[in-house]
Amino acid sequence: MKKLFAVLGYPIGHSMSPIMLNDVLASYEMDAHYHPFKVSPDELGTAVRGLKAIGIKGFNVTIPHKSAIIPFLDGVDELAMSIGAVNTVVNDNGKLIGYNTDGYGFIKGLDPYITSFSDKKILVIGAGGAARAIYFTMAKLKPLAIDITNRTVSKAEELIEACPFESNSKSLSLEEAAANLNEYDVVIQTTMIGMYPKISEVPISLSNLNAQALVCDIIYNPLETQFLKEAQQKGATVQNGVEMFVYQGALAFEKWTGIFPDVNRMRENVLQQLGGAKC
Ligand code: NAP
Asked: In angstroms, what is the span from residue 130 Cα to ligand 1's centroid?
């Protein structure tokens, strides 16, 4: 019988996951389908019970359901619980278990550049949902330091206080971070500043950027944000948000099937959907 996978969101039409993951399922000749379901917040519990009743193998969860889904699951792994958000659900013998692959997805994307975090000083720009997943997951890997800068500094402070893993972290205003930017080996932009249609904006000035730094922007529309453009002009190595997107999907696929899929194929698929070249 055909296995069912899905993504639940509201809206859901923009999601690139169905085309990316149906292509991967087909490439492994699996008798399976990945379907997007538009589920309103009011119907989330009913939808989850329905998917469980029909024996879904697994599903992704996207905006606005990543936190709201937790009470409807049978279990949530420790990291996802501490982040307070689930993006991947696995049907484990009839029990729906929630995970968060966003943080590890981001970190997997850094494999070509970073083998150990123990000597790395990291700056996270932003303190929203994506920053939380990245910060908590990275803190587990014990970098030399991992600081957070945010427009609302109190939210950066809250994130540091809420992190269940010991970390050498401080919160900074955007101005302080810009002034001290040359201290950082890795800079991770997680706000929506620079996202289409306001593509000329940057969250902080890069004038003090270390030319040896790795600069990541988790935005993928546009593929090259103004932030990455300026970082590249400063000589830094840059990475856009496609890697995080591809790897969070690859880690979800692995949880459902036991197979770590061909990420090159997935990346090509996503780039085709975005209609551009790799940054
Ligand atoms: P979120 O929870 O709403 O957080 C938004 C963040 O952006 C906050 O830190 C907020 O600061 C900051 N911000 C918003 N408007 C700002 C402004 N005008 N000036 C300065 N800072 C501003 O959003 P999220 O879910 O973390 O998503 C953030 C971005 O990540 C989005 O662009 C999303 O598409 C992208 N994303 C990418 C992936 C991927 O796979 N590549 C995955 C998840 C998310 P305040 O706290 O001061 O409001």
From this structure: 7
